[in-house]
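Lab meeting, item 3. Inverse folding demo.
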């Protein structure tokens, strides 16, 4: 069987922001961490201490140097140079090698599939919510969509270190492969025939959300088992994809977990 995607090679990546750098420690090889001179805070000091405890070199430079390295001023005075997060294969996420001979049950899968989300901030926000709600993986397309960049990692605030992301060449074919593993595929758009509250998320399922402006492509919509909608009561036509994903993911989490079994804020 043809592989739907290949794991990306390791390459240098710049991560910035305290949460993103802290989450990467111990999970990715880090060449060094750059901290801004004269800008100390308890959280930054904790990151520096964690680096030194793990043997990660820490260097200090003017804040302007961090601005240039991060390509942003929103780095919270810390930048890490590390190996890029590799993409998972869809086969690995589904629990088999791809040769068609050792398929494992998909278990209680909860995937998030994004159809052409181009804004890195949206991709990062969806990833963070997916991790918080207990999703088991994400699937994104290779073309006309954001990939796993430093700005996505910053928006995800460390969540990318806790979820597998598969990048596929053909999203429709990937959905068919997901369905072949007895996983229900639910798409979401304003014209959906059912309310999102009427769908059964206790089953293994993949939640499919469209990109900014265009929504679901026709072939992607047709590959979904059911298409739901989030009711709108005010004078707006649609919700931001990260907001829509959060609403649906937490309904899925509610159906899958007994009341009161989540991790409270004070436990984090």
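The presenter then showed the designed sequence:
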């Amino acid at each position: 069987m043809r592989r739907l995607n290949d794991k990306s090679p390791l390459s240098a990546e710049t991560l910035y922001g305290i949460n993103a750098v802290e989450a990467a420690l111990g999970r990715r090889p880090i060449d060094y961490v750059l901290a801004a001179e004269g800008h100390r805070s308890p959280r930054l000091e904790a990151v520096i201490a964690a680096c030194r405890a793990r043997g990660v070199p820490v260097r200090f430079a003017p804040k302007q140097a961090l601005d240039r390295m991060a390509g942003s001023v929103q780095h919270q005075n810390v930048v890490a140079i590390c190996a890029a997060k590799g993409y998972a294969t869809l086969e690995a996420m589904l629990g088999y090698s791809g040769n068609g001979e050792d398929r494992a049950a998909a278990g209680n899968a909860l995937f998030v599939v994004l159809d052409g989300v181009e804004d890195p901030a949206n991709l990062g926000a969806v990833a963070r919510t997916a991790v918080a709600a207990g999703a088991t993986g994400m699937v994104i397309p290779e073309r006309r969509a954001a990939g796993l960049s430093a700005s996505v990692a910053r928006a995800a605030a460390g969540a990318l270190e806790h979820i597998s992301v598969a990048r596929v060449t053909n999203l429709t074919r990937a959905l068919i492969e997901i369905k072949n593993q007895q996983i229900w595929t639910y798409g979401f758009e304003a014209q959906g025939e059912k309310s999102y509250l009427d769908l059964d998320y206790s089953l293994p399922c993949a939640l499919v959300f469209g990109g900014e402006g265009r929504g679901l492509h026709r072939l992607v919509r047709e590959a979904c088992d059911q298409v739901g909608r989030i009711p709108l009561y005010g004078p707006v036509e649609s919700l931001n994809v990260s907001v829509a994903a959060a609403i649906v993911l937490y309904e899925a989490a509610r159906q899958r977990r007994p009341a009161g079994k989540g991790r409270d804020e004070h436990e984090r």
